[in-house]
């Protein structure tokens, strides 16, 4: 057996390493440009998330390493003075502008384009920061006060829903500019005079739940693209000029290189140069496509020119926009059907948000938690976190559930008592006339309330089969919201930190251990073979004496007592529980800071973000 010739491999590495890393850097940029927009719609697809995360990590690393190789090859040995990225880049650039380089002018032009792109990225990062948003809001307010612009660009009270989705996007943009951008900047109550005097409350009161969801989804998408993309910067006159200049300069460089005498150049280097220039043109083309077919293009178009135009080219452009916006329309599926593969693909490729409810169930987790063998290796905490993520599940947001939540909030808006009391209602607003149930809410903190009602809902759901076969949507609403709110409490602690107590994690862990002791009866039975329904029945008949640490299980037995009280209500218990869960969801929505929702938009957003924005527009739950 002959050994490989390492000298030839080393020679190939020495000759082609710079070209290889430059091509790898370009490939990573193309991958990020194409796949990064999918991040907010595929946050739970760990393969896609891992690819995007790895590409982000490698993009800067590979580019910096390639710059170091270029500088090192041109200087012999990279000196300490050239150790910084900027100096190394400038050194490599200056070396390429020697008198022997006949392509120095295209090189200089492409370097200028690189500076423009870096400046554009820096400006986008600043404008997407909270300080940048605050300054932008203050500047807009000053301009409006000087010009006397106290009215909206379009009349949101009569949007052209009947014709197409263009009016939805334009209305969402006006709400974003005059309301939600100010809200995210945390200046809502300090600069309310700077907000357009549009009656968003009466507007949403007159809209159907489905129409409202479409508008809120588009509005949240504007927030996301402002904070996490360059579209907010690109959709300016200067941004348009830079896009045209970038594409024109790259095309000119391609023409110049194609006419250049390349007989003395290495064939491989020629192929690499063509690949780099064509790759840069491909990036500009993709960016231009995303720029044209974005909500910002629709938002900046004059409503009458786009919606009511009869000119042939404008009519054609309007048709293209309408067809494209139809692809971005939210895919709310009915509760009694599953989403088709075509609808799922459309949502992944074109959707504005994930349209998914993530969920986590405490009893199911206790059933599958298993033995803590990881403690033998000091990996118990890490393995528990992996199991928690693995045992979570997701389901599409149904139209029926959204209608139930939206109609409940709208009714509270019309109810003066609900309007003022919802801010402090931790689930007890619907129970204000039921003292037997209200004490289970009134005597505990919010996170304990959520845990109590989560366990009680699960016990009732798995042991009450009296409503089987009939329309029991309230039962399903309660189950879905229960698992979703527990997911927020357990897996989104940063967002829920403003409504939870310090010892929340210890309480959850103790309650989970107590459930495991009851359902497995001190490990006398094999794990992972017990049915969910049987586990709930064991909890209902358990006694405190069966728990070694009585204090750790006190919430579990209070939740069991709550389930017994709810069972006495008969069929009405699901009406009560579903209303309680909407109250708990509303309380979380009104007490979390707006920047918490903004930070979650890159992962597809959450149902609670939709509820928060609807409540702000309806002015429900404001203190």
From TrEMBL:
Keywords, sorted A to Z: Membrane, Transmembrane, Transmembrane helix
Domain DUF4220: 83-365
Residues annotated as transmembrane: 20-38, 50-71, 240-258, 270-293
Protein's recorded name: DUF4220 domain-containing protein
